[in-house]
Specification:
The complex is a heterodimer of chains A (about 110) and B (about 110). Chain A is mainly β and about 110 residues long. Helix content of chain A is about 0%, strand content about 55%. In chain A, strands 2, 4, 5, 9, 10 and 11 form a six-stranded mixed β-sheet that branches. In chain A, strands 1-3-8-7-6 form a five-stranded antiparallel β-sheet, with no helix packed on it. Chain B has no helices and eleven strands. In chain B, the strands form two sheets. In chain B, strands 2, 4, 5, 6, 9, 10 and 11 form a seven-stranded mixed β-sheet that branches. In chain B, strands 1-3-8-7 form a four-stranded antiparallel β-sheet, with no helix packed on it. Classes of the chains: A mainly beta (about 110), B mainly beta (about 110). At the A-B interface, strand 10 of A face strand 4, strand 5, strand 9 and strand 10 of B.
Chain lengths: ~110, ~110
């Protein structure tokens, strides 16, 4: 099955700086790569996703890049704010509904 | 619009007891699934359903049963609870499962003692 590795496990950034989280996947047939944000006591919420026919996607301060050859994808958050503090999960799937998740990254934005 | 609703939010079980985690969605979504979340392991798929009357196993199905008699409901049954099933359980749904956003419930915290 699919194996998704996520790094780093924790990330502390100064407010206003950028944060980058990286994920690698094992199944070359995976074609859907969503990112979820989970706040304390809540369920994961989709923040951005990318499909294998696209190399980069941006939505305001967040962006995702995909390198199919190297089988890795990354989340970039610019101009971080305190409300960006949360746990972020990457996932991969060869069909949209059977997601394999990374272990998560705890992001702390220091004021 | 309630979205994906899970009950109970917290539950403590004794080893060997059975229980059902309830999940309901009011968005007329065809696809529903259950994940468990353990520290340092992300979320792992337990069971999923692509429509009423259709269920299939995910990555970690042992010890769990599901059924999908209606589009709205997708209960998860623990037949004989074990301490290894202590976890946070999330129900999720999407309109068709293909190309649609997957929405998660707020989670059910289960402790088996």
């Amino acid at each position: 099955g699919e194996n998704v590795e996520q790094h780093p496990s924790t990330l502390s950034v100064q407010e206003g700086d950028s944060a980058v989280i990286k994920c690698t996947y094992s199944d070359s047939a995976s074609n859907y790569f969503p990112w979820y944000k989970q706040e304390l006591g809540k369920g994961p919420q989709l923040i951005i996703d990318i499909r294998s026919n696209v190399g980069e996607k941006k939505d305001q301060r967040i962006a995702v890049t995909l390198n199919k050859t190297a089988k890795h994808f990354s989340l970039h958050i610019t101009e971080t704010q305190p409300e960006d503090s949360a746990v972020y999960f990457c996932a991969a799937s060869r069909n949209d509904y059977k997601l394999s998740f990374g272990a998560g990254t705890t992001v702390t934005v220091r004021a | 619009n309630a979205g994906v609703t899970q009950t109970p939010k917290f539950q403590v079980l004794k080893t060997g007891q059975s229980m059902t985690l309830q999940c309901a969605q009011d968005m007329n979504h065809e696809y529903m699934s259950w994940y468990r979340q353990d520290p340092g392991m992300g979320l792992r798929l337990i069971h999923y359903s692509v429509g009423a009357g259709i269920t299939d196993q995910g990555e970690v199905p042992n010890g769990y049963n599901v059924s999908r008699s209606t589009t709205e409901d997708f209960p998860l049954r623990l037949l004989s609870a074990a301490p290894s099933q202590t976890s946070v359980y999330f129900c999720a749904s999407s309109l068709t499962g293909t190309g649609d956003t997957i929405y998660f419930g707020e989670g059910s915290w289960l402790t088996v003692v």
